[in-house]
Amino acid sequence: MNNIKLKSMLEEFLKEDLGDGDLSSESVFAESDQGSFYLMVKEDGVFCGRAVIETVFRLLSPAASAEVHVEDGDEVKEGQLIAKVSGSMRTLLQGERVVLNLIQRMSGIATSVRKAVRKVEGSGVRICDTRKTTPGLRMLEKYAVRAGGGFNHRMGLYDAVMLKDNHISFAGSITAAVEKAKQHCGHTVKIEVEIESEEGLIEAVDSGADIIMFDNCSPHQIREWLPRVPAAVITEASGGITEENLSDYASTGVGYISLGYLTHSVKSLDISARVLRQEVEC
């Protein structure tokens, strides 16, 4: 993860929440008032967001300290204390919500990915994400996918060619779209083509596509059509794939399965910040 970009993102998130100051905390506590709180996991899952915890409070005050006792990708249990943060009470309260919002979502994504990865164990298929991420949070959400054991698809429109149905419609055909892409791009750029029919598959293969995505195809269709794809061409399935039918798609023989639900409809992991009366060991 790009730490320079992370710092810039977190600064913007804090500006959004703080505005001109924290009216609640500044009304109750002096700058010299010190304290600590613990971050506690309230349900089983996979943790992600260590750098967020460590960076947010340092941005608010260089004197603040964060002791994080888990690593990204670690499995955590209900009731587990994962970090202790110390500093001025104003600093702790100003950073609390930004930290929780982010690590809850990142941990929820990592947890969802881990479940998907375990469902396909032994099949050889790789689970990957999509561009269906929250605007402004893509770097963090895709990092969480990796923490959960998945792989990233393209980060954006800038780092890979993916010819979808509308590209093909505008270009006139799969062949025309692939030819134009090859003329424009360098030799290091792979070209992926989305197909929905056997005819489209044959045309994509003949056009020299590097990656073929079976879009909204059934497991039966993929099994039937896959022998038409040369071994050198990477295959991917996407669209209509859920936690319930994931195993069926994994058994088809495709190389990758991309899942939009990992980021666009994930349930955040329940994590809270607690001020405890006595010191405890994390």
Tag the structure with descriptive keywords.
18% strand; alpha/beta; 282 residues; elongated; four-stranded antiparallel beta sheet
Question: Would you give an account of this structure?
Answer:
- With 282 residues, this protein is of the alpha/beta class.
- The chain is 42% helix and 18% strand.
- The protein has 11 helices and 12 strands.
- The protein has helices at 3-18, 23-28, 50-60, 89-119, 138-147, 165-171, 174-184, 198-207, 219-225, 246-250, 261-264, and strands at residues 34-41, 45-46, 65-68, 75-76, 81-88, 126-128, 161-163, 191-195, 211-215, 234-238, 256-258, 271-274.
- The strands form 3 sheets. Strands 6-11-10-9-8-7 form a 6-stranded parallel sheet. It has a 4-stranded antiparallel sheet with strand order 3-5-1-12, covered by helices on one side. Strands 2-4 form a two-stranded antiparallel ribbon.
- Helix 1 (3-18) packs across helix 3 (50-60) and helix 7 (174-184) packs parallel to helix 8.
- The longest helix is centred in the middle third of the chain and has 31 residues, at 89-119.
- The radius of gyration is 23 Å and the shape is elongated.
